[in-house]
Write a structure and sequence with these properties.
Blueprint (H helix, E strand, L loop, with lengths): L1 E3 L3 H11 L20 E6 L7 H16 L2 E7 L3 H13 L4 E5 L4 H10 L4 E5 L9 E4 L4 H14 L4 E6 L4 H17 L4 E6 L6 H13 L4 E4 L4 H8 L2 E6 L10 E7 L2 H13 L18 E3 L11 H15 L17
Parallel strand pairs: 2-3, 2-4, 4-5, 5-6, 7-8, 7-9, 9-10, 10-11
Antiparallel strand pairs: 1-3, 11-12
Helix pairs in contact: 5-6, 5-10, 7-8
Length: about 350
């Protein structure tokens, strides 16, 4: 586990807490409106902050820090077995707002929130909010995922698309299913090879899974995990990005990406804590395109390479989504291979 964002004095205090010495913890802060200008925020992440999903939370919090809205510290690569302890330490250490993801530690995390009712928690979760202070969010970016599927369906020549995911949980499944639906809209003949690597961050394993699919004829890869675009680049096939835009790193490989923007969720939580109006909410809808929670990355180096009629269809669909005239189906079921 790595801790970041502390000044020297805070690091010394933190080290003392981590060694288990008593008497150093501060009382949890109250939720009423804050007199000070900056909210004390912590992030607790089970993977490195470079991992795409977590990087979006971290990026939004760093932006708030740069504006002077918050004081931000974080812990990365926290094991599930350590997650509850870190949550408690941050709550007792005076952090007023805590972000993280609790998919593997749901019960323990909710128990911690009950013990610290005056601390605001905003956690990635598949379940509902818990009164009074446990809000949830999720990457509901199925809308741009659908649009990238449309592009993929038009770009494949073999009519085989490979898809490598971490785990078949709702957060992954809904994006894959939306992508598949988008591909089938423009190309009814497309087939899919789907596999899960059983890890959130294992680029070599994802790369090997992608190689296997390319060997079976896939010429477009859905890169839900890091490592897939590396395989696509080596084998000179195309890739579709997820959550972040990796085209700058793979300019001849990544055609398009569905982007997630956590800024609406982060900014809402910070404002609520500052105003003393924070309550348990479902922040999921703040990932929708119409509120700026997600978007389709620019085609960039593939501008002019994607068929013009497909670009027109994608733009029309995007506008319909933003106008509420087209709804992308949310399907949390595990996607299956169709070849």
């Amino acid at each position: 586990m790595r801790l970041r964002g502390f000044d020297t004095a805070a690091r010394l205090m933190r080290r003392t807490v981590l060694c288990g010495l008593a008497g150093m913890a501060m009382a949890a802060v109250a939720l009423p409106a804050l007199a000070q200008s900056k909210v004390k925020v912590a992030g607790i992440y089970t993977v490195p902050i470079e991992q795409q999903w977590v990087s979006r939370i971290h990026t939004a919090l760093k932006a708030a820090e740069a504006r002077g809205d918050i004081e931000y510290v974080w812990a990365e690569s926290v094991a599930n077995t350590d997650y509850e302890r870190v949550m408690r330490q941050y709550a007792e250490g005076g952090q007023q707002l805590i972000f993280g993801e609790v998919f593997g530690v749901e019960r323990a995390a909710r128990a911690v929130a009950k013990d610290y009712p005056k601390t605001a928690f905003v956690m990635g979760s598949s379940f509902k909010p818990q009164e009074p202070n446990f809000s949830v969010f999720d990457n509901y970016i199925q809308e741009p995922a659908y649009l990238t599927g449309m592009i993929a369906g038009a770009m494949t020549k073999s009519n085989v698309i490979g898809m490598v995911g971490g785990y078949p949980i709702p957060e992954v499944n809904r994006l894959m299913n939306a992508f598949m639906d988008g591909a089938k809209e423009v190309n009814p003949n497309v087939k899919f090879a789907v596999s899960f690597i059983g890890s959130w961050f294992d680029p070599p394993k994802a790369k090997e899974a992608a190689f296997a699919m390319i060997d079976r004829g896939a010429d477009v890869m859905y890169a839900e995990r890091f490592g897939v675009s590396d395989a696509a680049k080596e084998r000179k096939v195309l890739a579709i990005g997820n959550v972040i835009n990796t085209q700058p790193q793979y300019p001849e490989t990544v055609v398009a990406s569905a982007l997630w923007h956590m800024e609406p969720s982060v900014d809402r939580a910070i404002a609520a804590v500052k105003a003393g109006s924070y309550k348990a909410e479902d922040y999921g809808p703040l990932s929708h395109m119409k509120v700026g929670g997600s978007s389709l990355a620019p085609l960039g180096t593939f501008d002019g390479k994607v068929p013009a009629d497909t670009v027109a269809k994608v733009k029309a669909r995007e506008q319909e989504i933003r106008d509420g005239k087209f709804t992308v189906k949310v399907n949390d079921g595990e996607p299956k291979s169709t070849m």
